[in-house]
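Quick start: read one record
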Amino acid sequence: MSRPTTRTTLTVIRSALLATAMCAATTTASAEPTKAPAGATDAAPAPAKATADPSAVEPPKEEWDNRDVTELPGKTYLFVGARYRGNVVPSFILNLFVDEGATVYSNAVGIELDIRKDGFSLIPALTFAEYGTGNLLFKDKNSKDIAGNYNLVNSSLKALYATADVLWSVKISKMFDFEYGAGFGLGIVFGDLVTNWVKEDPNGALRGSNGKGYSPCATVEAPGTGCNKADHQNSDIDRVGGYSEASWFNGGSKPVLFPYISIPQVGLRIKPVKQFAGRIGMGFGLTGFWFGFSGAYGLEQKPKP
């Protein structure tokens, strides 16, 4: 009886030891950390850098070509410049009102602002004009050929005009436009207008179409000489000795204000680059025919980034 009991006890002890060893091995394997593969690191991978989008950093730049003179619809363009105009009063126009006379030429210069949109220009301007003539001989229209119907006229009048031209244009080519329109304004007149009686003088510097010579009257002389009120109709002033006409404000015939009207006027506009525009033109106004030219600087600027 004792022998089988001893063998059974040994078997139980051996089974218990084997089970304990297996449990210990399992616990050790579970506790040992998992080793990373060779070459691997514990640090997390760095996030990839985002690629910058140029269009998101700044807006696209507008193209700028100074030789591209296209004017966009609906956009206003400004030009600041200067002008010259020569004015011609042909003798045949003067002869509509008086006999004798001569062709008169005068000059005008000014500054201007061209306000342009959709092929239309409004051009306000300030212009200085001079109407100097030198000594001219005039005869009352269709009057008798006597000294009393002749007068010497010498103008040193000047005027300062405030005007505005209105011009429409028709495109001829990329750089050229044909323009047509009109001009209006008002001028302030100043300076002297000498009207002096004359008398016949074979050696006189003034020559009439009748071949006779005339000299200005320095003083009042006897009737019939041309230097007396009796020789001139409706004269209540002795126009001798370089008489200068009084202004309208003083009861005289010299104008103080003078209208500017130019209808029609035509010309050519030339724009070779964005920042320059020139014009040549001509027209007809109250002071005669005129021709002229101008140049203006364009205020259009290159767009900022």
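The first strand starts at residue 76 and ends at 89.
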